[in-house]
Amino acid sequence: MTFKERYLAGEIPFEEIDRYIEEWNESDDERRLAEYLGLNADEEDVWVDESDEALQELLDSQKA
């Protein structure tokens, strides 16, 4: 499961994104970081252009 899937399911806190980024940096995964995390283009834009907090708010709005 991706970071986003696990976060939305309530399995992990948002701060786990840092561990996922570290794993991606140390891996040979050819996907872009956003894809590895499970983020779509809009989520990636919010994260890059605004902040971690803005991404967390956006993801929180998607929780069931």
Describe the structure.
The structure is a single chain. It is built from 5 helices and no strands. The protein is globular and about 30 Å long. It has 64 residues and is an all-alpha fold.
Key terms:
globular; mainly alpha
Give me the secondary-structure topology:
Layout: H1 3-8, H2 17-25, H3 33-37, H4 41-49, H5 52-60
Helix pairs in contact: 4-5
- Total DSSP E strands: 0
| Overall 3D shape | globular
- Average pLDDT metric: 97
What percent of the residues sit in helical stretches (DSSP H or I)?
A: 55-70%
Structural class: mainly alpha
What is the CA-atom radius of gyration, in angstroms? Answer: 11 Å
**Separate helix tally:** 5
The largest pleated sheet is described as: none
Strand content: under 5%
Distance between the termini: 17 Å
Low-confidence stretches: none
Strand/helix succession = HHHHH
